[in-house]
Each structure stands twice: as structure tokens, then as C-alpha cells.
Amino acid sequence: MKTWFHSWRAAIRIARRDAWRSKGRSSLVLAMIALPILGVSAFDLTYRSSELSPAERVERTIGAADARLRDAQVGGVPILQDPAGETHTPAKDPGDGTWPSGPTDVTEVIPAGSTVLTDGTGSAKLTTAHGLLMTEVRELKASDPVARGIMVLLDGRFPEKSDEVMATSHFLETSGLSVGSTLSARNFDRPYRIVGTYELPDALKADQVNALPGAFLAPYGKAVEKAGLPAPGTSVSYLVRKPGGFTWNTVQQINTKGVAVVSRAVALDPPADSEVPLYYQASPAAQAAELAAVSTVVGLAMLEICLLAGPAFAVGARRSRRQLGLVGANGGARSHIRAIVLSGGLVIGIAAAVTGTVLAVILTLLLQPVLEEAMGQRFGAFDIRPLELLGIALLAVLTGLLAAIVPAVTASRQTVLASLTGRRGVRRSSRVLPLIGLAAVLIGGAIALFGSIVTEQFVIVAGGSAIAELGVVAMTPALVGLFGRTGRWLPLSPRLALRDAVRNRGRTAPAVAAVLAAVAGTVAVSTYMASSEAQKKAEYTPLLPYGVASAFVPEEGGRDVPAVREAVQRAFPVDVRADVERISVGKPGCSQWEQGTGCGRYEVIIPTANECPMYASLPGGGDPSEKYTPEQRRKMLTEDWRCKTSGSSGMYVSDGGLLVGDAALLRVLGVDDPATVKALADGKVVSFSRALVAENGTIGIKQIADAAAADKAAQESRPYPGEVDSLPAYLVPGDKKTYGVQALMTPATAKAAGLTTVPLGVYVSTDRLPDSEQRQKLEGDLAKLGSSIELHLEEGFVGNDGIILLSLAVFAGLVTIGAAGIATGLAQADAEADLKTLAAVGAPPRVRRTLSGFQCGVVAAMGVILGSAAGLLPAVGLRLTEERGQIRVYEQNLAQGWSGESPVPDLPIVIPWETLGGLLVAVPLGAALLAALVTRSRGALARRAAT
Fold first, then answer.
1. How far apart are CA 390 and CA 386, in angstroms?
2. Is the pTM above the cut of 0.85?
3. Which residues make beta-bridge pairs with 259?
4. Fewer beta carbons below 10 Å: N end or C end of the chain?
5. Which of these, 615, 748, 598, lies nearest to 685 by C-alpha position?
6. Residue 541 near residue 349 (C-beta atoms within 8 A)
7. Cβ neighbours of residue 678 under 8 Å, at least 6 residues apart?
8. CA distance 351 to 31
9. Element (H or E) spanning 190, and its range?
10. How many whole angstroms separate alpha carbon 68 and alpha carbon 245?
11. Which helix (H) or strand (E) holds 506?
């Protein structure tokens, strides 16, 4: 070892030989380092492969065309767009004026001599083997060379006749159909034969059927209108190919006509940012915060691995101390000893890097179909970025070296005599490190406290908590010493285990720190999630009384409502059933919010005297709340009944919360007032909202037949045009909880007032909460109808964080058992001579097992206790910061007149006792039992060397 190169080469050879001899320990450390590398490398490969190149993205979007032109629906006014053609906005900001809308003729801007292919889309309820399925229908001549790449044919052929279609593989799987089957649509008796199946590379889970242009959507729309229903909306874009393509200047010229463009030339060679008026760049602060978050996660992960792997390297150094002593006895310097131990980290790190990277590539290739299905899109080219993978692999090497630093320094400080004779010598722990750790705890705690009380920056709280946690890690040797004072009250085996851990803090502290870090993170996340779930439970607003279900069909004039009512009656244990209807204006087949030709709407009039002054419309527009001071707005929101939300707030049922039904609905909603039932039977409109009833005891309902005129009036802040019908009303006393229903009338009352009604849905109260089988049966029956059904079953607040909390506890338990097991292995290597002596003087064989179990349990218990205490700080700090932010927003809302009924934010802090109990009791106990089970009762009896 005369030169640096030769000494390191020899050290690496020795380390490689030791790693091969100790296959179990080497495999454990290799797995610890390689698994994160495997995960990160696989994520990098998946992300890069799914990230399409401009050429791949263009091929999937516009096929072989030069551009796709589509109407921006701004009435033909000039627009600005991004180079990708995904975002656009009117070139002239309308300000407080009318936002431009309306169609424009795209064909007028298509250059002469171009090859054009239309691409139309719509929707229809198609017949399937199970019933009906709402499906996207596309009309594109997929066999045309211009469309090549948009649809990938899997089986069969492209449609060639007007009565042929092809369907996506997902549609065939969902519908139960196959190539050769026939399908049709509701209200449309023309059959179509499926001649092929295809997939959309960017939407593998799409339910889509493709026909030739003009073969389906136009005749289907006529058939639907003939049945008295509004024709479904359609959209058409144009795939254009022309010599020279579409440059950025050409795209901008077309934008002046209100047409958006996706251009191949622009996508492959985008313009400079200065040439894009609609250029958007992410905030540098946001990018810096994201980089800081990623760096913090990577740093903490490396720290955890180092804390876990460090004791394992110490085990190897301890078991090789005679060999290291021989190196020193033959003239080796301390630097050579350090090089040998560091080489162990280097060898394991390189092996972990190679193993993790190779496995990541193999697994990503093998799981590519599964990953594509989960992501819902096909990969582009399998993209391997060598520099990125090399950087990830270097992290493994660096982690291995960092994990071996402390064992290397410790081994080099051993004298040659101590190494050869097996003496452990006197070890004194550092007195400076605990002081540094205490300072870090105080500084980190102060930073976290400042962030949670003074500022609203989560980054400050997280940073301070991380510093405090690192301080606790640095204080671990001193804290381990404090635990040793409890040994006097323990029986023999646990007392020996605890004193052994305290006397050998060099191997105990890293393992305890590793457990501490894992448990602290688990406790922090668990506490935050448990607190958030408690807050959600406190803020949860039920949409219906407990156990009540509702099913609404707002489309096609309630055509499927009778079938929906019967399906609910069959599937659920119904106690009371209440059928409800809604008021319809215009064609009876119009959907609830239909804005098409012949479809109108209605409005429940709020008398002027009952309007909140901050919300009353002003002539010529404007914000009426601006004329009030913040204090006046706050007073109105909290004291003026007109500005408070009604107790009937809940799910949205119809315009104005007005339903048509009978007294059964009152029973379902829990309204048992006899006077209310009598008023409903007497032909009055029962109102649960004081604001709806005028001074003369009536409710006004305005029927608006001309929806376009109403929209124009709304833009100009004028009343909607229409006639008002005044009906006698009864105001229900008190503030009843009616879950969105603000007014109710019987069908007879509506008919007498000249109001047209159509079926809307049903409410049912249940004898007991329906079980999973009953819910699945109902959902299956409703799916066969193919309608858009709004189904809700009120089962109270249901938390969904339980599985996450359990997963975190399991993760922390595994890390704890692993770290404690490593420390136990090191303890056994140190205490082998003592164990032999115990056996020689007649100690029972079980002492070896119990001592090993207690050694493992002691390390686990110390780490869990310290980690549980350390993990509460960041969780409490983040909750306090979040509460301050919500209080600030609440005060701003009150000052601006936005909300008056919301309570003052009060974020609870909940300790997850079940998770803590499992960590504090079950994990140490499990670690101790596992260590006892895997430890041999009898060791090889040998002569103890004289010292």
C-alpha cells in the first residue's frame, strides 16, 4: 500500500470479499439502499416514457394532418392562443362587459387547395347487452391517410358503409358487445354493425363509437327531435393538410377570425416566448418551493437509510476487527482502516445502484401494459435518460459511503491490541454533540412556533420541525443514557439489555435515531390526518336525513323517472317513499337546465323587501356591496335575516328549491308539523324560507319562455322577461332543516295555477341503512337505463383515512423492527464473549433468547417513545398555521360581504391514540418476540480468551 491508488484498490478487494462472505448482512444493506433506487428509477422511466415528444403528441392529436382547426365559440372575435392550441382567450378583454360567445364558420378560414377531413363528436345512449350506455359518438373517416395515428385499429376493419361503426375496446368490454354485434340508440331504430375495434392512445378507458361523417349524428338528432326531445349538441373540427403547413404567423392570422389552431409546424418548432402574447410561465417562487420540497424529501430519505445501514456496517467492522487489527499490526495506518470500512459502503452502494437500476428497467418493461392501463394512455418511445439514471445511481453510492463514515471512524480509533484481543475498551460519548442537538431543538422549535403563530408559511413550520428533529437525532446518545437510569427497577434480562444499550451508545444511538425518524414522520402525518378528519367530521353537512336516499333524473323530461322509482323501491328497504316533480317551461322533453330552442325556465321571485341589500341588483350593473363599509357588511351578515342563508340549505334540488310533491316528502324530511301538512292539503305553497314569502302571504313564480332574452337581461342587470303567477303560501314557523327544499306544492296546486310539471325523481326513507349488496344491485339496475341519474344515500360522515393511517403504522413498525434487529445483531457480536461466559457458569439456555429479545425491544421502545414525542411538533405547528390562514380568510369574507353563516374556524388537534398505542406497545413487543424467536438458545461453548 505505497500509493493512494494501490491502497484503495486493496481496500475495495477486502471489502468485496467481506461482503461476499457475509451474504445475509450484505443483502440486507443492499436491499435497504436498492429499493428506493428501484422506486425512483422506475418512476423516472415511467414518467419519461409517458411524456410524449412533440411529434408523438401531434400524431395522436391531428394524425398526419398539418393542423386541426376548431371554433373557439367567441362569436368570431379575435383570440390569443398558446402554441399548443390548448388555451385561448379573446384578444380584447371584455372587462365587466359581455363575454363574447357564439359560433363562427371555420370553413371560411381554411386555405384554398387544402385537403380537409371533418372530425365531429356528439353523444348518444347506445344499446348494449346490459341495457343503455351513454357513449361518445365520433364521426371521422379513420381509414383516410390524414387521420393515421389518431385511432389504432386492434381488430376488424374501419367502417366503409353508413351502417357500419367501430368501437373502442373499453366500450366493447363495458357493453358486453363484440365485433360483429349490432347496436342502435334510444329513440333511434336504425341498426349499426360493429366491424372493428380500436383504441385511442391517449384515452384507453374512453367509451367511444366511430362512424363515417354524416352517418350517425345528423339522423340521430332528427330522430330525437321527432320524439319531442332536444337534439344533443355536437362539435366539429377540421383536419387540414396543405403545402407548407401552418406557421405561427398563419396561426395568428387565423386566430383573428375566432378560430383556434393546433399546428404541426408550430408544435415541432415552437416560437420564442416573446412572440407568444398568451405566454404563461410558472412562478419562480413556486418552482423554488417545489425544488425545496423534493430536496427535503430526498435528504430525509437518505438520512433514514444511513441511520439504518450505518449500524449494519458497524456490525461488519466489529466482526472483522481482528482482520483490521492485523492490517494495523502489519504497518497499516488508520487511513487504511477507514478506507477498508468505507470501501464496504462503496461496494454495497455500487451493487445497490446497479441492482436497483437494472431491476427498474426490467420491471418497467415487464409492467408497461399494466402501467399504461393504470395511467389510461400508451407510452411513447421507451425513454431511458442515462444521465438521470446515473444521477439516481450516484445517490445510492453516496448513501452507502455516508452510512459507512461513522463505523469507519470508530474502527480506525481502535488500538491494534484492542482489535486483536477483542477488548472493547472504554468508550466515552461526545459531550458537544448533545449540546448541538439541544440548540437545534430549541432553534427549530422556535422557528416552527414563529411560523405557526406569526406567519402562515407552511415551509417555515416544516423547516423548523426538520431542524428540531435533527436536533433530537443528535441528542439521541444522551437520551439513551437517560433511559439507562430506569434499569434499576427492571428484572435481570431487561436490565442487562438496557445497560448494554447504554454502555454501547455507538451502536444503539443510530438504530434508535432511525426508529425515531420513521416514527416521528408517521406520528406527524397521522396526527395531521386525524385532526383533518376530525375537522371534516365537525364541518360535515348532511345532504339528507340519515338513511334517506334520493334519485333525480334531470334529463329528457324525466322519461326514466318511473323506472328509477321502481328500481329504488326494489333494491332498498323502503319505509316511506315520496315521488317528486319539477316545474317545466317549454317543451316537455327539455332537461332541467336545457338552454336549447323551445326550452325555458322559471324563477321563484324574492320580493324586493326581502332582498339582502348587499345582493340586490343595481340598474346598469355593479356590485351593490361596495357602498357599505366592511363593518356594515359584517353586521348585515351576522344580524340581518335577509343576508343569512336559510336552514333549508343542502343539496340542490331545483331552481329556487321548489319541488312538487305531497305530504310524504314532509315525513321523509322529518317535518312533522300538522299545520304544515294542512296548508299543503289546502292548496297552499309551503315555504321553509322567509325570504320567498311576500307581505301579502304569496309566493311569485315567473315563467321564462325566452331563455336568450333572459340571458341578455341578466348581463344588463335587468329583471327577466316573463309573467309572474302569485300563489298563496304558508310560511313554516321556525328554521326547519329541509336539506335544500325551500318550497313545496302539490301537483293539484301546480295544475290549478297553470304550471306544467314533469317527473323529477324520488325520496325514500329506509328501515335500515342499505348494505353493499343492495347498493350494488340498485347501481346495476340504474346503469341499464343509461340515464344521468343523481343518486345520493345519506350515511353520515364517512372517513377515508383509516387505511392510510394503518399503512403508516405498518411502515413505521417495519422500520422499527428492522433497525432494532440490526442493533440486536451488533449487540450479539459485541456480547458473544459474555454470552459464552453465562453459558459456562450454568445460565439457562432461555437467557440467551430473552436477552436478545429485550435488547431488540429496548431499542424499539426508546426509538418509538422519542419519535412519538418528536412527531407531534410539526403536526401541531401545521394545524395552527392552517387555522390562522382560515381565520384570515373568514375575516376577509365577512368584511367583503361574502359569508355570514359559516362559523369561526376552529381547527381541532387530535392525537391518533390507536396509531400511537400500536407503535408504543405492539411494535416493541413484536420486535422483542421476533428477535427472541430467531435467536438460537445455545451458542457454541468455547474458551474465553484471557484479557
1. 6
2. no
3. 71
4. C
5. 748
6. no
7. none
8. 10
9. strand 188-199
10. 11
11. helix 505-539
Q: Is 130 exposed, middle or buried (0-12, 13-18, 19+ CB in 10 A)?
A: middle
Contact 137, 217 (CB under 8 A): yes
**What mean pLDDT is predicted for residues 452-461?**
68
Cα–Cα distances in Å, from 363 out to 39, 46, 213, 360, 367? Answer: 10, 10, 43, 5, 6
- Whole-number Å distance between alpha carbons of 213 and 234: 12
Q: How far apart are CA 510 and CA 304, in angstroms?
A: 10
Give the CA angle between residues 623, 626, 627 to the nearest 5°.
120
Burial class (CB in 10 A: 0-12, 13-18, 19+), 274: exposed
Q: What is the pLDDT of residues 108-141, one digit of tens each?
A: 999 988 999 999 999 988 888 887 888 999 999 9
Summarize pLDDT for 691-705 with one digit per residue, the tens.
888 888 888 888 887
Burial environment of residue 471 by CB neighbours within 10 A (0 to 12, 13 to 18, 19 or more): buried
Grid cell at residue 93: 378583454
- Exposure of 91 in the CB half-sphere (CA atoms within 13 A): 17
**CA atoms within 13 A of residue 303's CA, in its CB half-sphere:** 19
Angle (nearest 5°) at CA 504 between 500 and 507? 115
Number of other CB atoms surrounding residue 252 within 10 Å: 20
Has residue 568 got a pLDDT over 80? yes
Taking CA atoms, 222 is separated from 227, 231, 299, in Å, by 9, 7, 64
- H helices within 205-283, ranges in order? 217-226, 248-255, 264-268
Report the alpha-carbon distance of residue 446 to residue 140 in Å, rounded. 64
How far is it, in rounded angstroms, from Cα 808 to Cα 819?
16
The DSSP bridge pattern shows strands 259-263 and 723-731 to be: unpaired
CA distance 388 to 43: 11
The total of other beta-carbon atoms located within 10 Å of residue 592's CB is 21
Whether the CB-CB separation of 846 and 947 falls below 8 Å is answered with no
Which residues does 946 contact at the CB level (< 8 Å), separation at least 6?
A: none
Contact 594, 604 (CB under 8 A): no
Q: One-letter amino acid identity for 532?
A: S
| H or E element at residue 240 | strand 235-241
Q: Which residues pair with 702 in a beta bridge?
A: 603, 724
Confidence class for position 689, pLDDT limits 50, 70, 90: confident
Exposed, middle or buried by CB within 10 Å (0-12, 13-18, 19+), for 933? exposed
